Amino acid sequence: MPDAHDAVGQLWFDVRIDGFSGSGFFWSDLSEWPKLIGKLRAYPLTETVGQRWGYSACEGDDAVLALTVSPAGPIEATITVADLYSLQQRLTAKLRTDYPSLDRMLLDLAVMVERREGHATLLGF
């Protein structure tokens, strides 16, 4: 949800996995995304790639949102969503995915950054 007058907007994560769900947001600058998208487009992934959004240095429980993608056999993504005002309320989910699913998400992310609207979904199995 970008601000029409600013490059900073609300970044929302909605996570649904095996009967659990969580939703939350933090502020994100559009300039962060091209570098992250570029790193995630590497084929094959040879290192863990991720980004954290939150308070202070975003370490540990200071992270409100986090996305980490690792080359673990099939690709493994770890997603964290915490309540913006009560960081102890958090959901961390891991899912396995594949390169076609990651590529679809990255295309949607690139469009989202360019148009300042939309959503991107990472499907797991």
Describe this structure in words.
Helices cover 20% and strands 41% of the residues. It has two helices and six strands, in the order E-E-H-E-E-E-E-H. The protein has one domain (8-115). The strands form two sheets. It has a four-stranded antiparallel sheet. Strands 1-2 form a two-stranded antiparallel sheet. With 125 residues, the protein is α+β, with helices and mostly antiparallel strands.
List the helices and strands and how they pair.
Layout: E1 8-17, E2 20-29, H1 33-40, E3 49-54, E4 63-71, E5 75-82, E6 90-97, H2 99-115
Antiparallel strand pairs: 1-2, 3-4, 4-5, 5-6
Keywords:
alpha+beta; four-stranded antiparallel beta sheet; two-stranded antiparallel sheet; 20% helix; globular
